[in-house]
Amino acid sequence: MSLITIMGLERLSHSVPIAPPPFRLVSRYLRPLALPITLLAIWELLAHAGVADARFVPPLEAVVARGIAEFGDGGLGFNLLASLQRDLIGFACGSVAGIALGLAIGFSRIIERLLGPVLLVHRQIALFAWVPLISMWFGGGEAGKVVFIALAAFQPALINTWQGVSGIPRSYRELADVLTFGWFEFAWIIAIPGALPQIFTGLHSALIYAWTATVGAELLLNIAPGLGGRMNEGQHLFHMDLLLLCILLLGGVGVVFNVVAGALEHRLLRWRIP
């Protein structure tokens, strides 16, 4: 075999990616499911072995049957859509306000000195401590719920945007001075693109916080269509299958939000040099 042939084969081996073995791909996707599947198996075992009272721990097939019945008549689907609509409206309002204020604080030392101590105090107050005040100001209806969800999304969006803009290296600012960039050019060309990873991290967290707050608002404020209202129904009527079904749905939607947000963040930040 000639030297040219050997060099060509070596170059080909470096240029063509080697696909991982199929079992490695399968294990990569199944590994995160190992713990949930194990917990479901333990749940089913305890329910059928008579160790746990079926009134408190109904078998998994009873929960599945309740889910089929609920989605079949459209009741639970309507409540799920109501919760999602409430969540996305609050998330949009809170994240937009958080990003806007975070940019303002990050770009202005004066605003940072004025609002920094207030925001530090605000971070120490538990989210659910605002429920009585929100219910007094906005009522326990739809407006109060959306405000509560927006407040949950506001904090991570604000903090991460603020840190992202404040963390722009000094060398970038000096480069902007050398290029005689104005404030708008510096913000649009250098600062905001440089802060995008932190901003997306804040939006990712805000999405999860907003979904958690959606359930809290529906449980603590006035009863309205939503998963929280159906959980209240399951608690008061002692329908454990309905209560557990709602909990599983909440976890499933949270996982979907997390996966979608992570995929969007990865795709939108592909331009970054690792």
The CATH topology of the largest domain turns out to be: MetI-like fold
Morphology: elongated
In the CATH scheme, the class of the largest domain would be: Mainly Alpha
Helix content: over 70%
Mean pLDDT: 81
Quaternary assembly: single chain
Number of domains: 2
| CATH H-tier superfamily of the largest domain | MetI-like
What share of the residues does DSSP label as strand, in percent?
A: under 5%
Number of E-state strands = 0
Contiguous uncertain segments of 5+ residues = 1-17
| Helix-strand category | mainly alpha
Q: Output the radius of gyration.
A: 25 Å
User: How many distinct helices?
Assistant: 12
So, CATH architecture of the largest domain? Orthogonal Bundle
Question: N- to C-terminal separation?
Answer: 39 Å
What does this structure look like?
Belongs to the binding-protein-dependent transport system permease family. With 274 residues, this protein is mainly α. It has two domains: 20-57, no CATH class; 59-268, MetI-like (MetI-like fold, Orthogonal Bundle). It has helices spanning 3-15, 22-30, 34-49, 60-72, 75-107, 109-123, 131-138, 142-166, 170-178, 183-220, 227-236, 240-268. Helix 5 (75-107) packs across helix 6 and helix 10 (183-220) runs antiparallel to helix 12 (240-268). The longest helix is centred in the last third of the chain and has 38 residues, at 183-220. The model is unreliable at 1-17 (pLDDT under 50).
